[in-house]
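Researcher: Checking consistency across runs. Here is Large ribosomal subunit protein eL24 again:
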Amino acid sequence: MPKSRTCSFCGGSIEPGTGLMYVLRNGQTLWFCSSKCYKNFVKLRRKPDKLEWVRKVKKSLLD
C-alpha cells in the first residue's frame, strides 16, 4: 500500500498519486500538497508560521 505523505509547507496530508515532490541540492526531499504551497515555499521563500491560512490548516488538522 502506498504511503501517505505530509506537506512540507502547510502540514496537510497528501494522497498517494498526487502532490509535488521537490528535491534540494543536498538530497533532502520536500513534498507539497498543492502548487500554492510549492510557490510560497520555493519561489517566494515565505515562512509557513507567518501565514494565516497555514495556521488555520494546521489547527484544523489537530482538531
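Researcher: Does this match what you'd expect to see?
Model: One thing to look at in this run: The longest helix spans residues 52-62.
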